[in-house]
Structures
1.
Amino acid sequence: MNLEPQNSKISESENFGNLRISGFQNLQIFKSQNLRISESQNLRISESQNLRISESQSLRISESQNLRISESLNLRILKPQILRISKFENLGIPESQNLRILESQNLRISESPNLQISKSQNLRISESQNLRISESQSLRISESQNLRISESLNLRILKPQILRISKFENLGIPESQNLRILESQNLRISESPNLQISKSQNLRISESQNLRISESQSLRISESQNLRISESLNLRILKPQILRISKFENLGIPESQNLKILESQNLRISESPNLQISKSQNLRISESPNLRISESQSLRISESQNL
């Protein structure tokens, strides 16, 4: 099915073999109660200057093999109550300058083997109450200048086998109440000059086999009430020039087999009332010129075999 770029309407259609929407200057889908795109083999939205999906109660895109949104200048999804993207083989959003998902109550991306977001200048997910990314085999977010996830009540990334966040200029996750990354086999955050996680009430990274944060110039985690990294086999923070963990109420790293912080020029842990590192087999902090742990009310390191 091909559409004319002058005036086109898509209504009351359930199944498409191939759906291509290309060459539009302005494409607007708005004020629809239920928008469902299901069981389509290939869904491509390419070379559109402005794509806006606004004020829809529920937006569901499910059971499609390939979803590609490429070379779009502005992609905006505004004020949907429920946004579900589920059961994809390949979900790719490459080469988009601005991708904005704003003021959505529920955003769910589930059961997709490959989720790739690459070469986007600005990726913003803001003011969403629930953001869930679950049961995806690989999640890759690479080569984007700015990734901002702000003012979200719940951000959950569940059961991805591979989670890679690489080659960012600015990666910021501010003002989120709950940030959870659960049961991921491989979590890698690499080659990002600035990684900032600030003003989050709960940050939990649990049951991940490999967690690597490497080659980032500055890593700052500040003003969060609870930071928990639990039951991870390998936690490695490699070659950061500046690593700052400051202004925590509770900072806990329990039950991790290997915790390595290697070749960091400046490591500062400051102004945290409670700092607990417990039940870790190997804790290594090596080759760091400056190591400062200051203004903490209680510092507990217990039941570790090698420190």
2.
Amino acid sequence: MVAASPYLVGTATFSNDEMSRNAILKGIDPAEEDAVSYLSDDIVEGDLFGLVLKEPHYSGR
């Protein structure tokens, strides 16, 4: 093995009054991800760390 990076996978359903959609979500560790993928090469502006929320964000509903 050359490199490894932890991740979590889960499912979610997003819906409104008209429709719903299912999604598979994958959470990564930005500090480790470059060792196993080229994801950061595809980011045009910012970096992987910019995707991490500093504080939890919840909808007002």
3.
Amino acid sequence: MSRINKCKRAPALVEGFTLIELMMVVAIIGILAAIALPSYQDYAARARYAEVLAAATPARTRVDLCVQANGAGQCGSIPSGSGWAAADGVGSVAISVDEDDFLVTVAPSGLSAGIATDDTYVLRGVVSAGSVNWSTDVGSGCLASGLC
């Protein structure tokens, strides 16, 4: 006679996630994305605005060289160089004189997201003892938008 051993099987372990757990994970990811996305967009706009900031360098150098070589009185009209606004994000670069100070104005092209055409970058150069001290002018549009 053969005996049939009836073994009791252990109940199967339930594996996986419940619906509530999955919903909690989705909610947490949604909250993190809502916080991170605006921060990333601000970071990306500031990174693209670096082209505008860099475009001021050749104009600033030209003013510095003119003042050192000729004195501030002889540098009333410095022409803009070709290729200064060659970067995609740069619309124009101009040098002007405001009373005794030099202004280098760089206007963005407005083609990048987060950067408007009125987010201009204006450097004010004050001549002191034969050299030019540069600072961001209060009329810069990039100050209000936090790009510079």
